[in-house]
Fold:
Amino acid sequence: MKKYTYILLFAILGLANSCDDQDDPIPVNEEEVITTVRLTLTPKDGGTPIVLESRDLDGIGPDEPIITVSSTLEVSQVYSGNMELLNETVSPADQITEEVEEEGAEHQFFFQLSQDVADISYDDEDVNGNPIGLSIVLETKAVGTSNLTITLRHEPEKTAAGVAEGDISQAGGETDVQVVFPIEVI
Amino acid sequence: MKYTFLLAICLFVNSMASQNCHYVCIGEVTDFHDGSPLVGATIYAKELDKYLATDLQGKFKFTDLCAGTLTLTISHVGCLTKTVEVHIDGDVYKRINLEHHAEFLDEITIHSVGDKHSASGQETRLKKEQLELYSGAQLGDALKEIAGISSLNTGNNIVKPVINGLHSSRVLIMNNGVRLQDQEWGVEHAPNIDLGSVANVMVIKGASALAYGGDAVGGVVVMNPATIRNKDSLYGQSILAGFSNGRGFSGNTSLTKSFDNGWFISGQASVKRFGDAEAPDYFLTNSGLSSNALSLRAGFKTLEQGLSIYYSFINNEIGILKASHIGNISDLVTAIESDEPLVQEDFDYQIEAPKQEVKHHLAKVNYFKRFENLGRLNLQYDFQNNRRKEFDIRVGDDRNKAALDLALKTHTVSADFKFDANHMRIFNTGLRFGYQQNVPDPDTGVRRLIPDYQKIDFGAFVTSLLNFDNGMQVDAGVRYDFNRMNAKKFYLKSRWEERNYQDDYAHFITDELESQYLTNPVFDYHNFSGMLGLKYFYKDHWEAGLNFSMANRAPNPSELFSDGLHHSAARIELGDLRLKQETSSRIGATLVYTDESASVKLEGYYNLINNYIFSMPNGIEQTLRGAFPVWVFSQAKAGIFGLDFTAAVPINSRLTLTNNSAYIRGMNLDMDEALIDIPSFQTRNSLTYKQSKWKDFSLSLKSEWVFEQSNYPNFNFEQFIPNDQTLVEVDISTPPAAYHLLHLHSQIRFDLKKNRGLTLGLKIDNIFNTSYRNYLNRQRYFADEMGRNISLQLKFNY
Structure:
């Protein structure tokens, strides 16, 4: 009976060893990670576009996002804004903006200012005629500094009160992106 | 039949006995191994020259006895015959344990190898009738019948058993002699067990059952299928049940064919379908369940040897409450502040993301041989294949792709030898060798939560049970386990440095990519465990036990390697390569009183755990999704103290009052604060009315009272919410209020011809549709528990 035990043990040892030379696992291509959120504000009457960017190449790793705002905004100016979402962990970078656009009915950006220095309105529509927020119009109206919070919600209640006007409080859904840019209007 | 006849004779003889003698001797014959009553044991009273047979409770009664000595010889099929002397100087109650040669009757299970459990350990058994009441529910729900057992839930379908405040890797689950390996480290991973395949469950609190493993810091749950006897027969059972809540049904059917010559074959299958469950005020959207399971066994056995094969498969698809899938802390704050779940839809049976899909295969071959006047050898090989897929809410092409896809394969070979020729001195020794491989599928497009790994386990144990004539039992055991964890894991360079691994673990790096290291961590753990206990039977009615056990548990893959965002908790969870084994030293004391009608049991314990591994908050990290608290696995000295109380007291011949209550206190002794997720005081009382003349009618009203947990660690934190520019305290710690629920169960049995029977059961859970939340439910931030549930059960034996 001891013999059986040995045979079984050796069989398993053999099995264990044969599996030992496993190949190295392959790295995962992170498909949905958003590493870069970029808002480009182009002045209506010409001039250099202003780029607001938050970049976090390690995704949910410990490195903080690097936030850059290329310049100050001009008061009483109308800017057309364009949102871009990128996954830069892959090369060439993945345009996540396109996915959001394709599934526009299930996504919406919200733009909130901590100080009343500008008005922001949506400049695009999904298939149901509700805003997405990939294109916006920003009109500065007062001098000052403010935080601009940009939030992307997945599956928001687009028909809830105020949501189409950009009020996030009733929107619900799940947050995919939330970044805060310090801006200055001079 | 024979037994009725014997009883009739006895009654006849009794009526003619002398009038001077009026004492009564009541006895109870139990299986020495597990304390279960032995039905149909023959009692021969020498002085009276009289035979009796034990009834369904294993009890017998001699009446009209004179003072003096009564010599009883007790025999039971498959048991060693035993003779005891009883002194009659009044009415006497005598409990008699028979050494049950289980293999003669039992299926070839590890249980039948004999006394794997300790005599002095805190063990409680649930019988088939109790389990059958939970035909639509989960193992974790049924185990709550036992004092000191609670559950850690994720919604209503993921129910993990918690033994004296400990769960997951600290609770071993043995399914028909096989240690379940199903990613049990995860608090949101329920054991892959089909209750329909289980005939009895034994819960052992603490690490006394060394034959199963040395790492049972919390305890062991041992489940076995029904015993098959060596006789020509064909029998089966079908249970059908319908449920109002979730508009679900469950069905379970089994069929067994056995032969005189020892051959047998048995099969069982079950199915469960539930739609969205309903809280008193709303539907719990996406909380459905779909489960299919089957098991097959076949083999042959005699008294000398037996060979059996077993295969079981379970496929679970479990919906996760949609409202619990959240993006970041702002969402969590909104969810906590809202009284109702933020996603509520109409009822349906659809199970959408987020959900889990788990398939678990288990196969085993077992051989035993009995050597005369020596003992019994048991050899076993088993294989398990666990495939777990978890689906998150995703967009674009990834919409239907799992976010987590793990394939876990486990092989185990074991050999045991039990020296039981002398039933007063029993020794059991065994060896285990296990190999495990985990392969996460990289196609998920999400970084692996648990890495690729191979694990080798080796274990050896010796246990002993010594019986003394004075009613004392001493048991002792030692065990050694070796674990080698060999993993291959990608670390983000930023994480590797943030964890300060570059100095200590630079040698693990085998490859460098642009932003990641490929590492090959290899860890060896040597674990020593042991137990020592004694049990004393005193004056027939009393039984006292004292038990000390030591367990050593190596950190599990999640504790070592976790690395990712946890959606429903809105936190980043990180493992730690530096974790050491945790060591539990547990002392348990048990006092039992039993007489012919009442039983009372009090169990106390103190579990001191060195290097207790737990997850605690450690700062906040900013990401593009917003801010997340980081929870890191850490170690501290922990102490858990508790009292479990069980009583069944008859009020009259038809009414019985039962109580089970548990008090527990868990402390982090290093930080002098409470441990997280420790159950609060709870007490369950039931009043049962039974009338056997009315078709075995029974009606039982049960009250379940769970107190508010006032001892909890405060892990609340302050968080700036940019959307409304406010700083809020995120209250993730405060336990919900106390609750009290009433449940009802009633059943009636119709005997059909030839051992056939039909049982009709009605059950109402949460009669008053009370809204409540449970501290030990991971979804308590999002929604109430289930409301009233009316179910009808039809049980047909044939």
